[in-house]
Amino acid sequence: MKRIAWLGGMLAQFWACSPVDQNMETASCQETTVLNAHYAKAGAVQQLLDRYTREGVPGVAVALYTPQEGYWAAASGYANLEHRTPMQVCHLQYSQSIAKTYTATALLKLAEKGQLRLDAPISQYLPTTVRARIADADRITVRMLLNHTSGLPNYSLDIDYVSFLLQHPLRPFTSDEYLAYISGEPLLFEPGSYFSYSDTNYLLLALIADGIHGDHARLIRESVFVPLGLQQTFYHDSPAYLAQPNLVDSYFDRFGNGELENVTQMQRTNVGCLKGDDGLIASPTDYIKFLRGLFEGRLGSPESLTEMTTWVKDKAGSPAYGMGLYTQVHGQYRGYGHGGAGIGAGATLYYFPDKQLYLFIGTNLGTLTDGPAVRKADQLKEEMLDLLLN
Questions:
Q1: What is the mean pLDDT of residues 81-90?
Q2: Is 116 contained in some domain?
Q3: 3-class DSSP state for residue 110?
Q4: Domain count, the chain
Q5: For tag attachment on the chain, is the N or C end more exposed, with fewer CB atoms within 10 Å?
């Protein structure tokens, strides 16, 4: 996971020295998915989670599925530290960039219907005002947006954008304002050369879907949520869609010293503005149901899944990304999925076919910058994978 190394310092510069308190008081909830009460590794997983929440991770929730043992989930720590609300497996977790997998799935449905051509230039689908902001739009294809080979700069890493965001943490942004930060900027490399992650790609995909379908968020609901019956997944279905009582509060280690501050309002404002590249929340088991639906062929054609799992190489020549999916190896096992990092949350969603294991891990700790608590969250993920895959 790539972190913004200078973000922590900028937070310290732009925010007051006194602690931030944006407490929203997460409510308790009830899990509706039937969970296996006799999951073989339940005790070991719970001990692992409890150890890391004792050591500084505010809260964490895990869900998994295998055909042999069905669904199981666990949680530890707190969804809200101020009110000591225990983290529960039914609490909604931020997807952060995992939302890109949902966006890619929906865009491929348009391609299946003949409404979108993957190898057409994006200039054919973007509104004139948006097209004017994108350098070489005639040379970039939809496919290049989906697999991050466009060469477009990443608006979310623009220093002017991050500076303004931190100076105005509760100010909403529009898609046009995001694109203004990369307007007219030259491409970073020849389109199609190699994989280089850019949130700009998936914001543009959302705008393309808006133009074709009318509402990319509705397209995602119709293409993903409805077919799978996802009742605890939310994405831009109303202006106040993040005002869910069981959405976790968010925490950030501003100075990298292990002292956590509640940044819930900033997190919600930021996430609520993001489209295509972020913006989705769901329960841990709903994330698993989505990834199962994708790999079990219930969300698209076999040809679409083949497109999503056709890996382009990074600059070093290693297979890296398909369409909305990473490919990574842990030990001897290869997995397919996505991760996400934000100011106040982090998440991982992966499928390991050799083990028939689907796994989601979500934390209400900001994972964009470094610090002892963030390093603990990374270690937790690695230990969890070791435990479940071996």
A1: 97
A2: yes
A3: helix
A4: 1
A5: C
Query: What token pair was written down for 198?
Result: 């850019």
Q: What is the pLDDT of residues 136-158, one digit of tens each?
A: 999 999 999 999 999 999 999 99
**Per-residue b/e over 265-276, b at no fewer than 16 CB within 10 Å?**
bbbbbbbbbbbb
Other CB atoms within a 10 A radius of the CB of residue 111 amount to: 19
Determine the Cα–Cα distance for residues 207 and 127; give it in Å rounded to an integer: 8
Rounded CA-CA distance 200/196 in Å is 11
Distance CA 363, CA 380 (A): 10
283 close to 232: Cβ distance less than 8 angstroms: yes
In a domain, 2, yes or no: no
Indicate whether 280 belongs to any domain: yes
Q: Is 314 exposed, middle or buried (0-12, 13-18, 19+ CB in 10 A)?
A: middle
| Selection from 370, 226, 333, 288 nearest residue 89 by Cα | 288
Based on C-alpha coordinates, what's the Rg of the chain?
Answer: 20
Domain of 82, CATH number, reads 3.40.710.10
CB atoms within 10 A of CB 326: 20
**What DSSP letter does each residue of 31-53 carry, written as one string?**
--S---TT-TTHHHHHHHHHHHH
pTM over 0.70: yes
Neighbouring-strand partners of residue 360 = 63, 349
Question: Which pLDDT band holds residue 256 (cuts at 50, 70, 90)?
Answer: confident
> Does pLDDT of 4 surpass 60?
no
Kindly tell me the sign of the dihedral angle through the C-alpha atoms of 170, 174, 177, 181. positive
Determine which helix (DSSP H) or strand (DSSP E) holds 361, and give its type and residue range: strand 357-363
> Are 165 and 155 contacting, i.e. CB atoms less than 8 angstroms apart?
no
Percent of the chain that is helix, strand, coil (3-state, to 5): 35, 20, 45
Q: Domain containing 136: what range?
A: 7-389
What is the CA 323 to chain-centroid distance, rounded? 14
Other Cβ atoms less than 10 A from the Cβ of 381: the count is 24
> What is the C-alpha to C-alpha distance for residues 218 and 237, in angstroms, rounded to an integer?
7
Under the banding of pLDDT at 50, 70 and 90, the label for residue 7 is low
Query: What does the block give as tokens for 37?
Result: 């009460």
3-state SS assignment for residue 31: coil
Mean pLDDT of the chain: 94
Q: How far apart are CA 262 and CA 24, in angstroms?
A: 9
Which sign, positive or negative, has the C-alpha torsion 119, 120, 125, 130? positive
Whether the CB-CB separation of 230 and 284 falls below 8 Å is answered with no
